[in-house]
Design brief:
Alpha-Beta Plaits; 7 helices; alpha+beta; 234 residues; 47% helix; elongated; four-stranded antiparallel sheet
Length: 234
């Protein structure tokens, strides 16, 4: 136990001796990296949407990084060659969320520390960061801007109704802020579809608000949804 945070490669190396990688140490590091990768993936999956491929990537990534670090093993020439090889890789995928990027960095850091032989520190690092992430998720930390009062509302009106300021009095009564973000014609130009981003003063009055909008737009289609975020936004 006193040596749990000691590096397994921390040996006294004299100028006449060279450090070599023992097969048991190699297997131990790979196994520890896979366990830490699985732990990282489980922490990330807590109340998060994820795909099977991303979950598998988080499990395997620490082991891959661990092998790279083991093979470098203090050799400057090998390190330069590895850096050059990684610079040739292009990742062609859609941008991830900030949480996904942080999970990938956590997995890479765990593999890096494990590859250096500090398995105890790697496990402690993953546990601290993972539990901190779970705690912030459970407490809804930093979600003040995604409250249910923020809505995207689409209102259909007839072509003979001037949409400029037609709903301003209702918006002033029921919303704290509103903005017209798009106007689209439909049904051979006989209808307009207006899209608003708005914040309701009181989410409980949403039905009353929609009923009054229906009286104003001739009972045509109205849809309300959670306010949309930009794709790939961090």
């Amino acid at each position: 136990m006193p040596d749990i945070f000691a590096g397994i490669f921390d040996t006294a190396v004299t100028p006449t001796t060279a450090s070599s990688l023992v097969i048991m140490d190699f297997v131990l590091c790979i196994g520890a990296a896979l366990v830490l990768g699985l732990l990282t993936a489980l922490f990330f999956s807590y109340k998060n949407n994820y795909s099977k491929s991303f979950f598998t990537t988080l499990v395997l990534l620490p082991a891959i990084v661990c092998v790279v670090i083991l093979m470098v093993n203090g050799n400057i020439g090998t390190g330069v060659a590895v850096a050059g090889a990684f610079s040739l890789i292009r990742f062609r995928s859609v941008p991830g969320s900030a949480k996904e990027i942080s999970a990938i960095f956590l997995a890479m850091a765990a593999g890096l520390v494990t590859g250096m032989g500090y398995i105890g520190y790697a496990a402690l690092f993953v546990l601290i960061i993972g539990l901190a992430g779970m705690l912030m998720t459970k407490m809804h930390f930093g979600q003040a801007n995604t409250q249910p009062a923020n809505k995207t509302m689409r209102i259909t009106i007839p072509e003979d109704l001037d949409y400029t300021g037609v709903f301003d009095d209702l918006f002033d009564d029921y919303t704290a802020r509103h903005s017209l973000v798009s106007v689209k014609t439909t049904n051979m130009g006989s209808l307009f579809k207006l899209t608003y981003n708005l914040t309701l003063k009181n989410p409980a009055t949403e039905k009353e608000f929609i009923d009054k909008l229906r009286c104003r737009n001739g009972n045509l289609e109205i849809s309300s949804s959670m306010q949309e975020a930009r794709a790939g936004e961090l």
